[in-house]
Amino acid sequence: IKILYFFLNHKGDDRIGQFNKVWDTACEDAKIEKQLFHDFRRTAIRNIVRAGIPERVAMMISGHKTRAVFERYNIVSDSDLKLGAQKQDKYLRKQNKHKTATIVNLQEKRANRDNG
């Protein structure tokens, strides 16, 4: 797989000297206020994970080499926690509908059978 660089230097090849300068210029050219590159990276990681792509694949896409650094970008929000609780509740309700059982004390049942 060949991955093309998104940012090129002024010569048009794939090596840039200082990323921050290139990023600031890109923001200026796009006529947007200065943005933090890592905010976009964080958003990308959140979107990848929430799309259901396995985290190991997300790490390869984003270039994160360690789980610890990846986790800094994979921010869990309050809405993520609420959604997780709702999914768990839905799962448990579904399980309870299909699994019904009666617990019987076999010793007691035998004693009643033998005495009755």
Protein described:
The chain is rod-shaped and about 95 Å long. Helix 2 runs antiparallel to helix 3 (55-62). It starts with 18 loop residues before the first helix and ends with a helix. Helix content is 61%, strand content 0%. With 116 residues, it is mostly helical.
Task: Provide tags for this entry.
single chain, 116 residues, mainly alpha, 6 helices, rod-shaped
Helix-strand pattern, N to C? HHHHHH
Count of beta strands: 0
Give the count of helical stretches. 6
How far from one another are the termini?
78 Å
Short description:
The protein has helices at 19-29, 37-50, 55-62, 67-73, 78-98, 106-115. The protein has 116 residues and is mainly alpha-helical.
Helix and strand arrangement:
Layout: H1 19-29, H2 37-50, H3 55-62, H4 67-73, H5 78-98, H6 106-115
